[in-house]
Amino acid sequence: MSEGGPAPLQVLVGADIGGTSSKVAVGLAGGPVLSYATGPGGNIRSSPGSVRANLAQTLRAALADARVLEAGLGSAGSAGPIGVHEPGAGDGAAGAALGAAAGIEVSGLIGMAGAGTGAAPVPEALEAARGAWSDVGLPGEPRLRGDLAIAYAAAAQVPDGLLLLSGTGAVAARVRVPDARPGGDPWAGLEVTARCDGMGWILGDGGSAVWIGLAGLRAAAAHLDGRGPSTALTGAVLDWAGVADGVEARQGLIVAVHSMAASQYGGVAPLVANVAAAGDEVAGTIIEEAVAALVGTAQMVADPSPAEIVLAGSLLTTAGPVRDGVRAALATMFPAAPLRTAEVPVVGALRLAAAEAGWPVGGPADLAAGVRAVAQ
């Protein structure tokens, strides 16, 4: 670009890579969100298939969105417009135009489950992220963060606070910028400086959907076996597990549960919540214990007076007794800390991609609205 020419077009690419699904959003610095795509998961420890290929698939889908073309990111000579992936074209066709076009700059940040929580990502995760970026032809290299940092940035107003997440798993994290750059963006360098739990369903994840689901399954099994009290969970669990009439209930439940992946146990959590709401004592106790576990996890890493608390994960972002109980407990424990909800975590990746480049970007509410608009 010649001196005095137009300012470069600043393109943001943000990714939220979880164990079961991936989300990628593309936007303009200080401007609109252009596209959003979902794809298979990319946790290097638990996701099936190739993490690199799964991430590349989702990146390619986001870049191929027609709205990216309409924003004027096309016409890069022989490379063709950004996002066009013609049948038979090389894997790099989707992003090749960005690398070839003059006057376009790209800043990308990938938040990946299993990538680690500090400034030095897990090497396998970094290799997969960089490989996928290169495979779709995007210029440069993406920055990589853990999924907790982007979840916090998806809702917080200040770069220093507490994140509590409960979905398939459960974890709390203290998030801040340990080495702020003088004169730089205050969000640049955001990372997790302390965490509690997130150890998986075998070792922890107290208060998660899987934890609640397992408690519900065990309560139903104890009722069937005569070891525990009667509970309305039993009928709900047998229906959920597809135990047919005429089959011995205990054996049917054993067979059904042992054929499932651990993540599927989380499907019992809504049953526990519904039965608890109807007044079942056993289910109510499970919900109370889940709330206590989550609040205790948060206490382990929280500052005495956190500036802000962000709630993330399906159990804490959708209406229900776990969310209500956790919010009430945290509001009592930390009355001065605003409680916010990270409903669209990929927004955090866009915010941090802009921060690392020193580019302008909208607030979390505006970005979330933009993602919802293009996701329709």
UniProtKB/TrEMBL annotation:
Source taxon at top rank: Bacteria
Ranges of residues in domain ATPase BadF/BadG/BcrA/BcrD type: 13-333
Protein name: BadF/BadG/BcrA/BcrD ATPase family protein
InterPro entries assigned: ATPase_BadF, ATPase_NBD, Euk-type_GlcNAc_Kinase
One protein family per Pfam: BcrAD_BadFG
